[in-house]
Design a protein that fits this description.
Arc Repressor Mutant, subunit A, three-stranded antiparallel β-sheet
Length: about 260
């Protein structure tokens, strides 16, 4: 992905990159609140009254409106040179939004686009194109959504996290199908690092260990899976996991 002139990042922590370099932004300050809110509401935008209420909830309306104008002007001064003089925030049909046409991008949108592009290419049979898009999505996911505490943001955080894990699983499947067991294992273990209860990732790790000649480690992976499920859900592994365990134990050549 070619770095955009201004990149607002919400995954793994709030950051603003200007021409690829981090811009100094006070943590939790007004700039973060404004850009973070607009980034999560892209491309829909946010009404002026909603922004004012969110960022200056206790201020009188005339003062809060003036403060918003001042904040947006300050952002233009800080970022406008990277956008060839264009404003980073624009007002369109009563909604404030980031100026995507002018060169402002958001990592959440870029991640979603890359993942969706991978899905589309996979459906058309373009495996290599799909895996390139999926890799791009994984590179963009620097961590879970790190902005907002309201319920809608928590829901969005879980949606993005679930999509990230699904991409990891698809990439692991791709590597395994192409006999790249080290990379398949790396992706499976990364998935388990985020969600230790994912049985499909445990099974992938078991198969990779066997293909890499580490049968004992595959058996230990099964035990880990069983212990995690028992501790978390008081449940046993699925039949497919049990069947794979029996193959690893008795007929590893068939794994």
């Amino acid at each position: 992905m070619i770095a955009p002139p201004v990149f607002v990042c919400l995954l793994g922590g709030f950051r603003v990159l200007k021409l690829g370099l981090p811009l100094a932004v006070r943590s939790g300050g007004k700039v973060e609140q404004l850009l973070g809110t607009l980034a999560l509401r892209s491309p829909r935008g946010v009404a002026r009254e909603d922004l004012v209420e969110l960022i200056w909830p206790e201020a009188e309306h005339p003062l809060a409106h003036q403060s918003l104008n001042t904040l947006i002007y300050s952002l233009h001064r800080s970022l406008g040179d990277a956008l060839a003089g264009k404003p980073p925030v624009v007002l369109h049909q009563g909604q404030y939004r980031l100026n995507a046409e002018g060169g402002v991008a958001v990592d959440v949108l870029a991640f979603d686009h890359a993942a969706a592009d991978g899905d589309r290419l996979s459906r058309t049979g373009d495996r290599h194109g799909a895996i390139d898009s999926y890799r791009g999505a994984l590179e963009l996911y620097a961590g879970d959504l790190a902005f907002g505490s309201e319920i809608q943001y928590l829901v969005e955080r879980e949606r993005l996290r679930s999509r990230y894990l699904a991409v990891l699983a698809r990439v692991a499947d791709h590597y395994f199908a192409n006999d790249d067991y080290d990379r398949a294992l790396s992706n499976a273990l990364e998935l388990l690092n985020h969600d230790p209860c994912r049985e499909d990732a445990h099974r992938m790790a078991m198969r990779c260990y066997v293909r890499l000649g580490a049968r004992a480690q595959a058996l230990r992976q099964y035990r880990t899976c069983r212990e995690v499920l028992a501790a978390e859900f008081e449940a046993s592994p699925e039949r497919s996991t049990e069947a794979l365990y029996e193959l690893v134990r008795l007929e590893p050549a068939r794994v």
